[in-house]
């Protein structure tokens, strides 16, 4: 279906969000509430106005509470459009209202107050997608003062136009291999997730996979009641709550999560590229109470859903029992209980209350909580200064109760020192735990002191402490006087500072930790032939071979429009590689073979391109490739290396066409103004020609004055328009690493004036023939 719009554009331009003075809370985190993954069909009959539904974010403090009056900065990070478009505001301020009339975004209802912690913006298209321009993708970032940010991916699809090439039109469908197809019924208890997903595929008619598109379940009828389901959103995802985003392969798996009970099957559809405000895309909708206008490009279904109510059947102590602490100190670990249903499965959404006996012996924070997806609820306990003996903390849910026993310890001797034991100067990738706990020792004049409450707090950078993900925890020292905590790297690379202190004691200890960028986003299809810039396929196109030139694409697949303008032909490896390394390792082996790095560049579409030589010393096989970029590393399993993997080096002509780099006998370059002639000997340049004698060495040129030629005279063949050419001579280029000169005779027949299809094949070491890409050669 096409996108519906009924809002008035001037309403958006008239909105000015004014900053609100004073903030009692500190903004620590920002998350997406609505708007990520939207997709518009430009030029479709009922598209309406050229802007997307509001992009809404939620700002919270370190404890997860919404922060009012926090400033959010918005920017357009990247776009494939000629004209990048614009945002209605460069900065907005979060709302401060908790009234029943508060809304998530007041762009469409300017008189309504905004909900506490939420704010929004609108992106207005610059260029429109069309069959001639292709589909367009824009990325918008929303960030807060501490550097935390979220990104929105907004996609524009061209309309189908008669008489035009519609290969860039975006099509969405339920995948053929989707475990759940339209008409299926899903059932389960509320708070659980179906183990069987709906698989959606989003791609162009030209079979380019589209990532970052929102997939969600919506009810077919407004306010239909009964059972309710939504796609389970992965923790840490930038997706709208209740939705998933397509990956680099254009697919998304929606696991239905049961959110409300009902015994009568209710109908739900899959909506592609839409927002949470959408209730019924087939019917005209009003301003939808000021929270956004229905959107979406495709809708599939129905899927039928029923859900059973789930009640707490048991309450169990999970962790934190039998702790000890000094009077006035906080317990080192939170108290955690787990709520289970009658099937002994974790129950989400149950309210647990906490109470202390005697009531003046301790405080609990929070005093009540709701069980998470694992059925767990936690609280932190601080003993009062007059606490003595044994203290009981009870957790109750309904008629169920569990008690924790806490022992108040004696006053400890005065401290003389607080020293670091282990954990300083570590590094870990974003989101990963540091390998060694942060540990300190508390000592008095007579030796180590136990029971000292040591506070570990993050005082700089991005990260968390302990399994609870807190910014500050209190851990009592053990019998050896030591207290330890595990730190986890946050989402922002840089220095993470953790300070250990004891209340009333002047000496502190500081841990300087390094948060590394995440592992590079690469897989087997990221390794391209360095000349033809194609990946290994299931057919006869093979990208990598020993001594051949390869290009690693870091990020999304490389579009032809982003191919390097200068061919990947180099005379020497880089001396400064920008902290980049690539090495090959066989499964089960310990030895690795480094690959010479020849160039590090950035494509016009912002992917990092690393050109390297496949080590000459390795053999044809499936290899594990270790890639390290700026300290973050990833290992890609099953990278295929063939004896031969030919690719033709090309250059971009003035007419925008890529053609083989070819040289005529007089040394001039073949072009449309200087075409090759029939029966003329033409020299082209390739990589991946297969084994040669004398053998070549990684990162080195051939022995001066000695030709390195294929081990088999018939190893390399050249074809024009699908037929073989005349005699072929091959040798390693004397001044270029991994490059081979191929000289052949242009046939006197089976060629035509203008561009002819040129290809190279290699048969080596008994393996099936491997082919290059189809290039072009201009012939008179």
User: Can you tell me the CATH architecture of the largest domain?
Assistant: Sandwich
Helix content: under 10%
CATH superfamily of the largest domain: Immunoglobulins
Principal-axis shape equals: globular
Q: How would you sum up the major sheet?
A: 5 strands, mixed
Structural class: mainly beta
Number of domain modules: 6
Number of strands: 62
Low-confidence stretches: 1-23, 278-294
CATH class of the largest domain: Mainly Beta
Distance between the termini: 50 Å
Task: Describe this entry's structure for a reader.
There is one protein chain. The chain is mainly β and 780 residues long. The chain has six domains: 150 residues, Immunoglobulins (Immunoglobulin-like); 131 residues, Immunoglobulin-like, CATH 2.60.40; 96 residues, Immunoglobulins (Immunoglobulin-like, Sandwich); 99 residues, Immunoglobulins (Immunoglobulin-like), CATH 2.60.40; 118 residues, Immunoglobulin-like (Sandwich), CATH 2.60.40; 132 residues, Sandwich (Immunoglobulin-like). 1% of the residues lie in helices and 42% in strands. A hairpin with a 5-residue loop joins strand 45 and strand 46. The N terminus is likely disordered.
